[in-house]
Structure formats: C-alpha cells, structure tokens
Amino acid sequence: MIGVAKLLFVVMLLFGLNWVAQSNPRLAGWIAAAPIVSLLSVALLLMDGADNQKVATFMTGVLYGPIPNLIFLVGFIALLLRGVSLVPALGFGVCLRLGHRLYRGRQGRIVFTLVESTASYTLITPAKRRTSDPCTQS
C-alpha cells in the first residue's frame, strides 16, 4: 500500500512539473533541477528504514549526477538551437553521454569513502588487459 502511495506521489509530482512547464518552462527547469526531488527521495529512503550509509551513497550519486547530464544537455541543446529536429538532437546527446561513459570506463573511476568523519578517495582502474596472445604461447 505504501508503494502505491509513493508511486502516486511521484506521478503527481511529474504531472505537476509538466503543468508548470506548459506555462513557464524556465521555472519548471529550475524546479526539476532543484534539490527538492533529492530531498524527497531521502525522506522516502528514511521512511523505508534506510541507514545513513545508504543515504550517503544515494547523495553521492546525486552529487556526481550533474556532470554526465551536463554533457548530454550541452549537445542536445546546441543542436536544438541550430534548428535540428528533436529526435536527432536527442540521439546526439545520448551518443555524447554514452561516449563519456565509455571513456570514463577505460580511465577508471574515483570512489569516495567516509570513515569516521574522514573523507578519502581511491582511483579504481580497470584490470590490465593481456598484452600477449594466448594462442601464440607455447
């Protein structure tokens, strides 16, 4: 029952945002980008009994989310402003985002950890690829 209430709440939030976007798209963009959704998500996580580690992991994802979105949006908006239709502009933005993801996957990623109020980071790189061909080895 609580899951249905959450779903209805999210649907009402999206419909409300769409309603605002019809009359004032800039305001709707600000609302969509505001931390309101993140804070509501944290509240729902806490209602479900999530511990502080899960909330911190979620908020770390929220912190890193705007960078890939920016890459997508720059390409998407640039093509729309040049008169390209919606679908090709959307495809271009998605291709930019996927290209960024593939590039970052090869370069590794930075993982932040919080241990007893001390922040540290670790660079995790992909496993080294085999440099020799196993078929040519004797």
What does this structure look like?
68% of the residues lie in helices and 10% in strands. The protein is mainly α and 138 residues long. Helix 1 packs antiparallel against helix 2, helix 3 packs antiparallel against helix 4 and helix 5 runs antiparallel to helix 6. About 11% of the residues have low confidence.
Number of strands: 2
Evaluate the radius of gyration: 21 Å
Low-pLDDT segments, ≥5 res = 112-120, 128-133
Name the beta content range.
5-15%
Q: Main beta sheet, described? A: 2 strands, antiparallel
Determine the N-to-C terminus distance: 64 Å
* Strand ordering within the main sheet: 1-2
The dominant shape is globular
| Class based on secondary structure composition and strand pairing | mainly alpha
Summarize the structure.
The chain is built from 6 helices and 2 strands. The chain has 138 residues and is mainly α.
Element layout with pairings:
Layout: H1 2-23, H2 25-33, H3 36-47, H4 52-64, H5 66-81, H6 86-107, E1 109-115, E2 118-124
Q: What are the defining features of this structure?
A:
6 helices, 2 strands, 138 residues, globular, mainly alpha
